[in-house]
Every structure is written in C-alpha cells, then in structure tokens.
C-alpha cells in the first residue's frame, strides 16, 4: 500500500493554502503554514514577492496536485480514477470527485471518525471497521449507496474509540451520509452532489490537464 511519507506541511506551503492534512493541528498556532506561508525551497521567501503569470498548463497541474494531496493518493492511482470516470456516464470531473469521496478512508473522515484523511487511512488499514458486516482493511475501498459501516467489536475498548463519540459530535456529517455517533456507525445514503462536496477543487481543470496527453 503505497503512500506519501514526507512532511505534509510542505505540501500545503507548495500549494499556497491550507489543505488541513494534519487535522486539528492546522487550526492552532503550531501550524507550519502560519509561520511559513511561502513555497518550500531555497528561494521560497523571495518567491512569494515575484509576480509571474501562470500558464494554463501550470494552473491545471497545480489543481491536479492539490486534489491528489487533499485526498492522499499517488499519481498512478489518481490517474486511474480519471480513466474510470471517462468510461462512466455523467460529467467526467464530477464522477472522478465522487469516486474519491466514496473511498472508505474519506467516508470515515467525512463521518467525523478521524481528524484527517491520513488518520482515517490508518485506522481503516488496521481493520478497525466493518463494511456490511465484513472486516475491511482497504482504505481505497469504494463504497456505494446502502453500504453500512461500524466499528469492529474488538476495537471498541481501545482508548481512541472510547473518546471518538465526543470528537465526532463536533463535526456534522454531510447529507449524503448518515451517522450515529453513539453507536459509532455510518451509512452511505446516496452519491454526493457537487454542492455537497466541500473539497476546494476545480475538477474541470483536472480534466483539461489529462485531456492534453
């Protein structure tokens, strides 16, 4: 299971905005983006004062990179979501974003059962959740309407899950998901509409990027 293992704060600085990759830490003064909100590298501090007109390709590339980093997927996997979206009915960009949203790790994050997608990926990979009554340890598993998620019985005694109810209560679940924070369960009600997807991504630029090749 390949994943990015480098410093995630550099990713936010490279994109020039907070991607909230560290969960609640990003909301505190300890956030590295608050201290160094410029691009990483030798000429980072000076580069923020340079005004350079970005080409269409540069805008498309940055949008694709931003989406990859938000959802925590590598290039090969991300391009596969695009190729699968082309073969599906509907708008390619929307279908691609819906597929990313329906990943098990993202659904756990949206339900409030993890403070970041990387944390959701970890707890999903450790097999702490059941999907339709069966244990799953595949964070990229695609969920569909009607799928039911619950914390595995053997994991409920862990400190993290004992405190999870209070953590989840502070974050409302989107309308396309149903959550019972007391029972630590969730259900996919329907496919998310574009208005219900909060990710600050312009999927049309991503489609244009891959259309060039």
Write up this protein:
The protein is an alpha+beta fold and 213 residues long. The chain has two domains: 8-98 and 201-211, Ribosomal protein S4/S9, N-terminal domain (Ribosomal Protein S4 Delta 41, Chain A, domain 1, Orthogonal Bundle), CATH 1.10.1050; 103-190, Roll (Structural Genomics Hypothetical 15.5 Kd Protein In mrcA-pckA Intergenic Region, Chain A). It is built from eleven helices and five strands. The chain has helices spanning 8-15, 32-35, 44-47, 56-71, 75-87, 92-101, 104-110, 117-125, 159-162, 164-169, 203-211; strands at residues 129-131, 134-136, 148-151, 177-180, 185-188. The chain has a five-stranded antiparallel beta sheet, covered by helices on one side. Helix 4 packs across helix 11 (203-211) and helix 5 (75-87) packs across helix 6. The chain is globular. The mean pLDDT is 84.
How do the helices and strands line up, and which of them pair or pack?
Elements: H1 8-15, H2 32-35, H3 44-47, H4 56-71, H5 75-87, H6 92-101, H7 104-110, H8 117-125, E1 129-131, E2 134-136, E3 148-151, H9 159-162, H10 164-169, E4 177-180, E5 185-188, H11 203-211
Antiparallel strand pairs: 1-2, 1-3, 3-5, 4-5
Helix pairs in contact: 4-11, 5-6, 6-11, 7-8
Going by CATH, the homologous superfamily of the largest domain would be Ribosomal protein S4/S9, N-terminal domain
Report the major sheet. Answer: 5 strands, antiparallel
Mean pLDDT: 84
- What is the top-level CATH class of the largest domain? Mainly Alpha
According to CATH, what is the topology of the largest domain?
Ribosomal Protein S4 Delta 41, Chain A, domain 1
Q: Spatial order of the strands in the main sheet? A: 2-1-3-5-4
* Terminal residue distance: 27 Å
What series of H and E elements makes up the topology? HHHHHHHHEEEHHEEH
Rg result: 18 Å
**Percent range for helical residues?**
40-55%
Which descriptor suits the 3D outline?
globular
Count the strands? 5
CATH architecture of the largest domain: Orthogonal Bundle
State the secondary-structure class.
alpha+beta
- The DSSP helix count reads 11
- Beta-strand residue percentage: 5-15%
Tally of domains: 2
């Amino acid at each position: 299971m390949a994943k990015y293992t480098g410093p995630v704060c550099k990713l936010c600085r490279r994109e020039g905005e907070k991607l909230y990759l560290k969960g609640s830490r990003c909301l505190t003064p300890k956030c590295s983006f608050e201290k160094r909100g410029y691009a990483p590298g030798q000429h980072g501090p000076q580069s923020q004062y340079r005004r350079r007109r970005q080409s269409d390709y540069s805008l498309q590339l940055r949008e694709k990179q931003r989406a990859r980093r938000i959802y925590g997927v590598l290039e090969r996997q991300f391009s596969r979501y695009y190729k699968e979206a082309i073969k599906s009915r509907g708008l390619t960009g929307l279908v691609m974003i819906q597929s990313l949203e329906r990943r098990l790790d993202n659904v756990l994050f949206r339900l409030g059962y993890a403070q970041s997608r990387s944390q959701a990926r970890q707890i999903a990979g450790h097999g702490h959740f059941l999907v339709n009554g069966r244990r799953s340890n595949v964070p990229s598993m695609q969920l569909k309407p009607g799928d039911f998620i619950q914390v595995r019985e053997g994991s409920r005694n862990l400190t993290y899950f004992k405190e999870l109810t209070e953590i989840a209560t502070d974050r409302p679940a989107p309308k396309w998901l149903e959550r019972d924070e007391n029972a630590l369960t969730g259900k996919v009600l329907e496919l998310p509409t574009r208005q219900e997807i909060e990710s600050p991504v312009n999927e049309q630029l991503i489609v244009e990027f891959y259309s060039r090749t």
